[in-house]
Amino acid sequence: MSSTELKSFINKDELLIQFPTIGSREEGYLAVAEAQKTCPFPIQRTYWVYGCRDRMKRGGHAHHNLHQILICVAGEVKVILHDGFQKYEFCLNDPAMGLYQKPLVWGDLIYHQNSVLVVLASEHYLTEDYIRDYQQFLEISKNNHQ
User: Is 61 marked active-site?
Assistant: First the structure.
């Protein structure tokens, strides 16, 4: 298959996860993420990003093996995912909605001030799992999807 025939491997519709929600406007809401139920992998690590300046850019990497679900629990975060062939843009601003970032997908995130992003990850932190060089990511992506 030539490079002009390479196709995107992301199905954008499969990336958004609507979490079950309990509650009402009067009492507030509770959204639920459960490993291997609403979350398609066992959760090994949970972390959150907060205190970012307005329009601060973070991310700028992909992972070899890590699966993640990104949930903006306060404010708004713009997420741009790139699978090596096509870019997809999402606006996360609903705490009952998650975005599934699969391995070998580059992610750039742009935070609104005072936003809080919670991340559910399939693995513990491993430096060697990160792909931080964009050109290297493009080569890996091309080689893995021919």
Answer: yes
